[in-house]
User: Fold this.
Amino acid sequence: MTDQGFEILEHTADLRIKAWGKTKEELFKNALRGMAYVQKEEARIKKQEARITKKIQVKSTDMTALLIDFLSEVLTQSQIDRVVFFDANFKAFSDTPSADSGQVELEAEIEGIKVDKFDEDIKAVTYHEAEVKQNPEGVYETKIVFDI
Amino acid sequence: MNITKNDLKKINDFVWEIPKSFRADMRAPARIFATEKLLEEIFRDRSMEQLVNVATLPGIQKHALVMPDAHEGYGFPIGGVAAMDLDEGVISPGGIGYDINCGVRLLRSPVKWFEVEDKLEELATEIYHAVPSGLGRGGRLVFDKNKFDLMLGGGAGYLVEEGFGKENDVLHLEAQGNLSQADPSLVSNEAKRRGKDQLGTLGSGNHFLEVQRVDEIFEETAAKAFGLFKDQLVILIHTGSRGLGHQIATDYIRLMMSAMPKYGIVLPDRELACAPFRSPEGQKYFAAMCAGANFAWANRQTITHWIRESWRKVLGDLSGELEIVYDVAHNIAKIERYKIDGKEKELCVHRKGATRAFGAGNSELPADYQSAGQPVLIPGSMGTASYVLVGTNESAELSFSTSCHGAGRRMSRHGAKKIWRGSDLKKQLEAQGIIVRAGSMSGLAEEAPLAYKDVEEVVGAVHGAGLAKKVARLKPLAVIKG
Assistant:
């Protein structure tokens, strides 16, 4: 494993990545970075560019769905504003279902830069093969398949 | 449980069956249309396991099917077909895919390609500039909110009303380019915002435009009915519903995932998320999906209009008009009538990477195609060959009137990029006399012809199985990609 927190794997038609992190929040951040890397390989290099931030809120049935729905929400904002988001600060992150809704949820400020053109036009983040779990070393990891 | 060739029952040289007994949760057997050679390729990835998963969906009729160009998707395999009972069955957004009504349109010119050979470079450049990819700048046509909804409700016909085509254009489109069940109010604001400036844009991935020549005619009568002749210059458009469709699918898969427990539906893969067709969730998705399909037809209509402008600009009035041969959807769910146990009934037919292929006499076909049957358009991999087939009546019984949709990938995009460089590929295509206009060299590498199955073998299997018959082969003159 490299230290960037994600790697690109093989898939016949689409794009599969593996992401990991010592905490769930770190896993979510690394998965976001993986997605940004697919959208624009050089997204993180251009440090001089003006940062764009956006607040998002996501609620889902479980942790795996929360990750996919989080990435989907980021992708939606990314596509609408033509911004590659490569970082997130979590304002709230509940990993146990709330008593009222039975759902897990997060609130985040995502950060990115405007791009002239995406390298890859990601259509969607799929639930296919996604499963957030801890490996024997205690690191949270999952695969994620993007439809491109 | 791994599936091997030993689990398959050979029905004939082109049809194989996985019996219902293979896995306890299967509600129907599964059938694969393939030659033995293609079958070997299909076994290389997880298409078979995904097909078995499709066979577990509630209300599935007869068989879960997969076409010869099958490859691994998410949820459904690409090339998958499933017809559901409307009362007891489900609708699954995963059975349509994120690119709702991704499809193909073929335009025919009245000229032979060598009559305009010296203008081809200019034509390719002109079209490349007229039809943006949409990865960077947006499209050239942006409707206000009101018109955008009218377009979602009206499909290609609305674009014609707006001056983007000729009145008779819609006659030669599947469903006349408009699904009347569309409800724009069920499409989220996010989806509309994603699609706002994407009308008339091509997208990336396997989407492309090709200027082609008719290389060979296999069936004269049908070719004549479709207005095709040897050496004719034709233009193929392959694109879908862009961000709007992707967001509709995303929104409704999420909705259905949370609704499934309510309906007691348990599935082997979350991407198969579904709801009963008659449920509020099922009906809403269907109406939103129809709006997404209409957007795709409007998109291909807009692109057609701009290609016609480019054609006139480069070739003047002397080279005549471009007419639409046909336009097919290969990611869609449609309500169609089939005989089940001797009784005719309406079914919701999911086609994910599969093309409808109606035979002669079907009432949806335009008058001039009534005696021939429906044109089935099969884009090959970049720089190889594409096919025009014609639907048969026997396919109604065999495959819910369905044929393949393309060559079918056999290598990952990532893998292709590791092996080939876009610039080398461009040189190779150019060495074959093919003009290339591409926005991205790595995008070009992903679509390397060897990353796909052999289109000849795929079309041969479809022809052999009797799902559709070969009419014409098309060879590329110019490839235009985002």
